[in-house]
């Protein structure tokens, strides 16, 4: 019995330790998100947090995903899940943006004008991406061809763009406003139109501003 108790105690401590470590990782992602707004806005960080709805959307998503995937402390987890469910509905009502906590979104996300953005629950988005207002990243295709887009790093998605299907968007791609993307795009492609066509390979470098780490 003593061995069982010691084992249980060690297991609980390990759960708490892992939960704490993952929480710090989540905060680091949020810090990268906030830093992108600060590079474009001269106001103090706390003013940005209070006034930029894009930060609200991202913060709610990251905290909710942490609770779902990494918070394993039983009682606290149940309370936080309820809080996340309520906060998600509040964010949806305020911004009309849906960011399911099952989607995978990298650090440094920038949402300049958060309104009407819908992301599929299985979507994957890389680091340092921009999402314009009224954009959709969703499922497309039939039967075995059905799937959800995978976006790489430093992707610029213009306002009103639609990205559908089992496709891959490589790093440093720029997608123009109102473009409809249903096919994979190579790195540095610039795609516009309906359906989207590649017009150059100048990439997204002129649109993605972030603090590069050494």
Walk me through this protein's architecture.
It is globular, with a radius of gyration of 19 Å. The chain has 214 residues and is of the alpha/beta class. It has helices at residues 2-40, 45-51, 53-69, 74-95; strands at 104-105, 118-119, 124-125, 130-131, 136-138, 150-151, 156-157, 162-164, 168-169, 174-175, 180-181, 190-192, 197-200. It is 40% helix and 14% strand. The N and C termini lie far apart (52 Å). A five-stranded mixed beta sheet has the order 4-7-10-12-13, with no helix packed on it. Strand 12 and strand 13 form a beta hairpin. The protein has a single domain (2-200), classed as UDP N-Acetylglucosamine Acyltransferase, domain 1, CATH 2.160.10.10.
> What does the average pLDDT come to?
90
Task: Enumerate the strands of the largest sheet in spatial order, edge to edge or round the barrel.
Answer: 4-7-10-12-13
Helical stretch tally: 4
The helix content, as a percent range, equals: 25-40%
């Amino acid at each position: 019995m003593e061995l069982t108790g010691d084992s249980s105690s060690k297991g609980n401590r390990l759960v708490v330790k892992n939960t704490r470590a993952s929480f710090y990782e989540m905060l680091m992602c949020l810090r990268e998100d906030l830093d992108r707004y600060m590079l474009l806005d001269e106001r103090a960080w706390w003013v940005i947090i209070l006034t930029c709805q894009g930060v609200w959307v991202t913060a709610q998503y990251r905290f909710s995903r942490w609770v779902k995937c990494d918070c394993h402390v039983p009682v606290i987890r149940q309370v936080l899940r309820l809080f996340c469910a309520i906060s998600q509905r509040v964010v949806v009502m305020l911004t009309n943006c849906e960011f399911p906590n099952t989607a995978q979104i990298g650090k440094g996300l920038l949402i300049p004008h958060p309104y009407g953005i819908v992301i599929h629950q299985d979507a994957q988005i890389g680091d340092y991406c921009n999402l314009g207002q009224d954009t959709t990243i969703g499922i497309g295709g039939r039967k075995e061809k059905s799937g959800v887009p995978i976006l790489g790093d430093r992707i610029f998605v213009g306002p009103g763009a639609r990205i559908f299907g089992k496709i891959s968007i490589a790093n440093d791609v720029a997608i123009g406003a109102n473009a409809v993307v249903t096919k994979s795009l190579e790195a540095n492609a610039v795609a516009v139109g309906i359906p989207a066509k590649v017009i150059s390979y100048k990439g997204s470098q002129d649109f993605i501003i972030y603090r590069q780490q050494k």
